[in-house]
């Protein structure tokens, strides 16, 4: 099912959109089309450019420890565990 809605991107980088009532719960694919008839190819490329952070900036921003609650296991153990889980399904 495809539904076309209109939304607004805020200065804080959030997408504001109101969904119609009655939509089923679950995952959805979101495609954003931004009307930019006045943008040049260079301006679009600049807007989409990734600005990598230094290690110090990553630590300062608190972006470390994303896997700290995960159990560390080796590659072979992960493969075996994944196979067992798939067999059970």
Overview of the molecule:
By secondary structure, the protein is mainly alpha-helical. The protein has one domain. It is built from three helices and two strands, in the order E-E-H-H-H. A two-stranded antiparallel sheet has the order 1-2. It is extended. The mean pLDDT is 85.
Strand runs, count: 2
Largest sheet: 2 strands, antiparallel
Q: Output the helix-strand order.
A: EEHHH
Work out the strand percent. Answer: under 5%
Can you tell me the residue ranges where pLDDT is under 50 for at least 5 consecutive residues? none
**Helix percentage range:** 25-40%
| Amino-to-carboxy terminus distance | 28 Å
Shape: extended
| Helix/strand structural class | mainly alpha
Question: What is the count of helical runs?
Answer: 3
How many domains?
A: 1
Mean pLDDT: 85
Rg from alpha-carbon coordinates: 21 Å
Strand order of the largest sheet: 1-2
What are the defining features of this structure?
single chain; 89 residues; mainly alpha; 3 helices; 2 strands
Short description:
With 89 residues, this protein is mainly alpha-helical. The chain contains three helices and two strands.
Secondary-structure blueprint of this entry?
Layout: E1 8-9, E2 15-16, H1 41-47, H2 55-60, H3 75-88
